[in-house]
Amino acid sequence: MTDVQNGSGVLRRIFASDSSTAPATATSRSSSAMTGTAASRPSSPCIPRHWAPLWAAPGSPYASEEEAVQDALNLARGMSYKNALAGLDLGGGKAVIIGDPAHITEGGIKTEALLRAYGRFVQSLGGRYITACDVGTYVADMDVIARECDYVTGRSPEYGGAGDSSVLTAFGVFQAMRACAQHRWGAPTLAGRRVGVSGIGKVGHYLVGHLVEDGAQVVITDVRPDAVERIRAAHPGVEVAADTEALIRANLDVYAPCALGGALNDATVAALTATVVCGAANNQLAHAGVEKDLADRGILYAPDYLVNAGGVIQVADEIGGFVFDRAKAKAAKIYDTTLEIFARAEADGVPPAVAADRLAERRMADVGRLRSILVPADAGAEAGVPADAGAEAGSPVRRG
Fold first, then answer.
1. What is the pLDDT of residues 4-18, one digit of tens each?
2. What is 166-309+337-349's CATH topology?
3. Catalytic positions, please?
4. Does the pTM exceed 0.90?
5. Which of 89, 111, 118, 239 is 20 to 30 Å apart from 97, CA to CA?
6. pLDDT of residue 382
7. 2-159: which CATH number, 1.10.1670.40, 3.40.50.11810, 3.40.50.10860, 3.40.50.720?
């Protein structure tokens, strides 16, 4: 643990690992997105654990630092599975900055110094972690972090970045939802279906646009009145529920949790009217067994880390030079993967969440075994290939 004084208080870097649940990353890099006010990260070659850098500052929304570390570890583990299922040669990680993500002039903790200090911490990892946007951080923040750090994605286009990763996150969620519609109702469209979206922030508002364009009847809710008004101004036909509890009890075909984690718990599952759950939030299942409860009620659940992989696909593409059409084509494959997961779940007689875990774990294990094939450090050079070509391509080949 390292403590560094800055204008916002004490900034701590904590690395924690869970040796009992974390599978080997089995890849040469990893990248993910972050929560609170944080970023995404990569893990180094064959690091076998989920690493969680934690930012601690006054005004914590967590009950304790331990709770924040555990949340980061859970999110990091989810990123390992997300990247594996998305076919990316990346491991999993998460960063959490504890505190109100608003700028200090608006009552929060965010300052240039804080963001740059975070950048220096990420830089100290030497490329084992690549940071990006998530809840509470934005493209402009990534540009500030990049003043101290080489390992930043989700930067603004004027600096060669991909811009807002929420664009392809929402696109991927929509593709997964189309796959849900195909599986449940026999057609890959939400036209005429009633879809409830809880959380209309960076991802949710793009998702609403896709749904409206597809002909869905959309019902929204959010704790921020300004977010609701923005959606209503853009899409006057959208309905508004008083809160999430009212939304899940409304007459819905699809429920899309797009805010923070833990949205699917015992009470939620018991109250749901929707027969499909497909949303952008991370860690939607509040505890083990919820996936079975959903299946027992006949509710089709699209695993969250499968559904929301569009964002990490976008920022991963940026690592080698971003091409939007290429990244969008990769994100579109979420549709096919979702259908594959549903087919595997039915064939194996398990919930989709279990089928998704198995497929992700199989890829991590299969690719991980390639690490046993040792390649001399100068082998590529002898063949006229740069020594770091494999790493640049995200290859799982182990060198040296």
1. 333 333 334 333 333
2. Rossmann fold (3.40.50)
3. 94
4. no
5. 89
6. 52
7. 3.40.50.10860
